[in-house]
Amino acid sequence: MVFSRPTPEALLECLGAGVRGFTAEHDGPAELIEAVRAASRGEYHVAPGMLELLLDWHRARRLPREEQARRRDRDLLGLLAAGASTRTIAARMGVAPKTVRNRASLLYRRLGVRSRAEATRLAEERRLLD
């Protein structure tokens, strides 16, 4: 696929449709030939400029995910501190009870505590629930 103005969304849509070779108009014939050869071998070929575009897009999207994870951890910690049961937390967060146990376990490890009570005490001391 040759693009005049590639966007990350267009590249991803093409990947989903099965396109294997990507170049831009300004990349020149050698890049196009390599993309065709790679695709004929069943391999992927992404011109360096397009790969950089995808990587930049991916990095920009990671920050919101990390923020979402922090928010989920705060929500979980708040529910744990409020004394909510695992089943109640699971229902509120829209996940399975086992997921709540796993996330709580990871949260305890990150906080350096071993229990709900220790996590609650630490959260209050550090004002993590404000």
Model description:
The chain has 130 residues and is mainly alpha-helical. Helix content is 68%, strand content 6%. It contains six helices and three strands. It has helices spanning 8-17, 29-40, 48-81, 86-93, 97-111, 116-125; strands at 2-3, 21-24, 45-46. A three-stranded parallel sheet has the order 1-2-3. β2 (21-24), α2 (29-40) and β3 form a beta-alpha-beta unit. α3 (48-81) packs across α6 (116-125) and α4 crosses α5. The chain is elongated and about 65 Å long.
SSE arrangement:
Elements: E1 2-3, H1 8-17, E2 21-24, H2 29-40, E3 45-46, H3 48-81, H4 86-93, H5 97-111, H6 116-125
Parallel strand pairs: 1-2, 2-3
Give a quick rundown of the structure.
This protein has 130 residues and is mainly alpha-helical.
What is the H/E string? EHEHEHHHH
| Biggest sheet layout | 3 strands, parallel
Portion of residues in beta strands equals: 5-15%
Q: Which structural category fits the helices and strands?
A: mainly alpha
Question: Top keywords for this entry?
Answer:
single chain; 130 residues; 3-stranded parallel β-sheet; 3 strands
